[in-house]
Amino acid sequence: MADDRILIHLPEFYRDIEDFVELAETETAELNVAQGAIDQLFDDQFVGTSGLQAIKRREQMLGIQADPTTETLAFRRRRILNRYQTKPPFTVRYLQRQLDMLVGEGMTIVSVDSANRLLIVTANIDNANVFKELSYTIETIKPANMAYQQNTSLESMIGLEEHIAAKSMTWTYKLDGSWKLGEKPFVTYGPEVPIR
Question: Phi and psi at residue 147, in whole multiples of 5°?
Fold first, then answer.
């Protein structure tokens, strides 16, 4: 009688009859299952709270081939929202907002070179599924008269060092016919001398 959904509505003398108590517990369990199904049905009406079956149905409707082994349910929800929200008209600010929602705040930078008709997206992405969705979004949103250029940014620093060295080269062949092919190399190198 932990969850008393039925027995509280019956007259009090039924609470002492074992058959009605058992019947009320069974009906309560069935009502709990039905309530859970109703709650899930309501949650499935919204992408952000959809269950797995509703996500699969929406992916099928949108023609998305999902890979549940590598894609999380949260990413699949974000991808569906992204597909629903890619409707014209588009602006650079809109594209930046979409990519921030998809990839993460500050992980992408969108810029436009109007003179060269070039849309440049600089991104720091290490997940192939997210990168595919990013490419799909950009190809859907960008105008047909603009080219898309993907730049990659790295979080970590790369160190460069410059070393310059010189070697002397002595050419050993002659064009007068006295040099025989294979007897001596074309050129011999001297030792490497560091300059800087």
Answer: -95, 150
Give the residue from 49, 31, 32 showing the smallest Cα distance to 40. 49
Cα 80 from chain centre: 12
Q: Is 183 exposed, middle or buried (0-12, 13-18, 19+ CB in 10 A)?
A: exposed
Nearest to 54 by CA among 43, 65, 67, 38: 43
Q: Are strands 187-194 and 165-171 parallel, antiparallel or unpaired?
A: antiparallel
pTM over 0.85: no
- Angle 84-86-88 from CA coordinates, rounded to 5°: 125
pLDDT per position as a tens digit, 88-100 = 677 888 888 888 8
